[in-house]
Design goal:
The chain is of the alpha+beta class. It has 3 domains: 120 residues, Tumour Suppressor Smad4, CATH 2.60.200.20; 84 residues, Phosphorylase Kinase, domain 1 (2-Layer Sandwich); 215 residues, Transferase(Phosphotransferase), domain 1, CATH 1.10.510. The chain has 13 helices and 22 strands. The longest helix has 20 residues. The N terminus is likely disordered. Keywords: ATP-binding, Kinase, Nucleotide-binding, Transferase.
Length: 461
């Protein structure tokens, strides 16, 4: 999960002026509505600006009551990778909250449109998603049009799980839905990764992913709970991550600057490196640009990552030169671990600059343009523009010099040194994860990073 700066507002409202205010600001993406003595009041949510509910006068929505904690819960909204919004609620109270009648305590849950959120012995809110999904979905619940906020959720029973049509993410090989573990006393929310199994080789790839996940236990690695299958699909039930994916987060948070601030990029990078260090200690390379703080999606992962492989996989934008060469020359091999380090370098460059290090076309006027580019480049059928420029991008990755614009990077000499070390073309000379963790950019603030890591990652596991 990614955590960001706080700040939003709460406004008591009538139906008419509430409706007007929503249309005045496209940044308002969700609201929690309650009725107090005949008057509608709403907790208004904007992207990446959490709102607090509690007894403390500094909370965004203040409730007086014996059973209400100082800060009872925190509400957040982030962009969904598929369009629309993901609304979550972090309970931090003594007495918990109730989601659709089920008690929740000391955990994070996702709120779907129409869900009821009750502060015990106090107020009940109804969640309203204002944004609707923008992209067409293809997956388990076909034929379902893009989900409208006013449309009721559809569900499907898979083993002991109730899978909903709320899509948390999708790609060429899988779709991730919100699901509930009905055997759990609190109907624990989980993520259901759904993959169609048309061929026997598909099943082998999926079982390889399951085998890898079952061997891993780390705060920055997505945890597996269970698996199910039927004639058409394989289902992997995983730890729920409510913060969205990293690149959607970057575009949403960097509305004005087009990039993250150095401190935030450093904390994200630190978590990524710790997760990769754990994977590499298990001789597993991730080989995909999916750091979440937790790292997820192990469909491309490779055990025995110190060995060379002919199997090239991953998004072209994040492949190292040796991986690009191996795409077009089948006899060439490359090693997984250095590939992970190259991808980490690309991610760090993007976080700090808002552009791809080898693709001039990835510097955009707005985060919406960048989000559209990222989504198109990861789609099963890439945009025509992306296809036309892929050969040029490959050539730049193989032969191009790393371009550091002086107006930005001159102020970040230690970060620039780390990026340069990770994006070395010869993988034998490329910085390792250990090298990165010992770089001056990380080491100079290692104590602060460790404290933040314990407070925001370990304490929330």
């Amino acid at each position: 999960m990614v955590y960001g700066p706080s700040g939003t507002h709460v406004a008591p409202s009538s139906p008419d002026n509430e409706h007007q205010r929503v249309h005045d600001s496209s940044a308002i993406c969700a609201k929690l509505v309650t009725v107090i003595r005949g008057r509608r009041e709403a907790v208004i949510l904007k992207l990446n600006k959490p709102a607090t509910i509690g007894r403390n006068p500094l909370c965004d929505y203040v409730i007086a009551g014996t059973f209400v904690s100082s800060v009872h819960c925190t509400l957040s909204a982030v962009r969904s990778p598929n369009g629309g919004v993901i609304v979550s609620c972090q309970d931090s109270s003594r007495n918990g909250i109730r989601l659709n009648g089920h008690r929740i305590n000391k955990t994070v849950v996702i709120l779907m449109h129409g869900d009821s959120l009750e502060i015990p012995a106090s107020i009940t809110f109804t969640c309203h998603h204002i944004w609707k999904d923008r992209l067409e979905k293809v997956g388990l619940f076909d034929p379902v049009p893009p989900l409208n906020p006013t449309q009721s959720a559809m569900t499907m029973n898979i083993g002991r799980y109730l899978v909903t049509n709320q899509t948390l993410g999708s790609g060429s090989f899988a779709t991730v839905h919100l699901a509930f573990d009905t055997s759990h006393t609190t109907r624990r929310q989980v993520a259901c990764k759904t993959m169609r199994t048309k061929k026997e080789c598909d099943k082998r790839q999926i079982f390889k992913e399951i085998s890898i996940l079952n061997r891993l236990e780390h705060p920055n690695i997505n945890r597996i709970y269970d698996t199910e299958q039927n004639d058409e699909f394989m289902f992997i039930f995983l730890q729920l991550c409510t913060g969205g994916d990293l690149f959607t987060y970057i575009t949403a948070y960097a509305e004005k600057e087009s990039r993250l601030c150095e401190a935030e990029a450093k904390f994200i990078m630190y978590q990524l490196l710790i997760g990769l260090l754990y994977l590499h200690s298990k001789m597993i390379s991730h080989r995909g640009p999916y750091p979440r703080i937790v790292i997820a999606d192990f469909g491309l992962a490779r055990p025995r990552a110190y060995q060379e492989t002919l199997n090239v996989c991953g998004t072209v934008s994040y492949l190292p030169p040796e991986g690009i060469l191996a795409l077009d020359q089948e006899h060439l091999k490359y090693v997984g671990m250095p590939s992970d380090c190259w991808s980490a370098g690309v991610i760090l460059y993007i976080m700090l600059s808002g552009a791809h290090p080898f693709d001039d076309d990835s510097a955009f006027d707005s985060s919406d343009d960048w989000l559209s580019h990222i989504q198109a480049s990861h789609a099963s059928q890439a945009s025509q523009h992306y296809q036309q420029n892929e050969a040029r991008l490959k050539a730049r990755i193989i032969d191009g010099d790393l371009d550091f614009h002086s107006c930005l990077w001159d102020d970040l000499p230690d970060a620039k040194a780390l990026v340069s070390g990770l994006l070395v073309h010869n993988y034998q000379h490329r910085a390792t994860v250990n090298d990165a963790l010992q770089s001056h950019w990380i080491d100079s603030e290692l104590d602060e990073l460790n404290i933040t890591y314990k407070n925001q990652v370990i304490a929330r596991c």
